[in-house]
Amino acid sequence: MMYKVYFQEDKYEVPVREKTKTIFLEANSEREARQLLKDRPINIEFVQLVEGPYYEYEKQQEYFKITEIR
């Protein structure tokens, strides 16, 4: 499954919408997606499952790139 992760680059930074970044990654669950990112110094705001028409829309965007983490 594909997940879109919204995050701040600084682990201790208060979430500010204008500074929010996103990455896409493949995982079997939201929990696994969070586990894959646990060693990174980021503040995860939200992990969203991307599927169906939403996935097709995201795939067409220029910023769409799957992040490989293993």
Verbal overview:
This protein is an alpha+beta fold. It has one domain: RNAP, epsilon subunit-like (Ubiquitin-like (UB roll), Roll). Helices cover 23% and strands 30% of the residues. The protein has two helices and three strands, in the order ββαβα. It has helices at residues 30-37, 52-59; strands at residues 2-8, 21-26, 43-50. It has a three-stranded antiparallel beta sheet. The radius of gyration is 12 Å and the shape is globular. The mean pLDDT is 93. Keywords: DNA-directed RNA polymerase, Nucleotidyltransferase, Transcription, Transferase. A non-essential component of RNA polymerase (RNAP). RNAP is composed of a core of 2 alpha, a beta and a beta' subunit. The core is associated with a delta subunit, and at least one of epsilon or omega. When a sigma factor is associated with the core the holoenzyme is formed, which can initiate transcription. This is DNA-directed RNA polymerase subunit epsilon. Pfam families: RpoY.
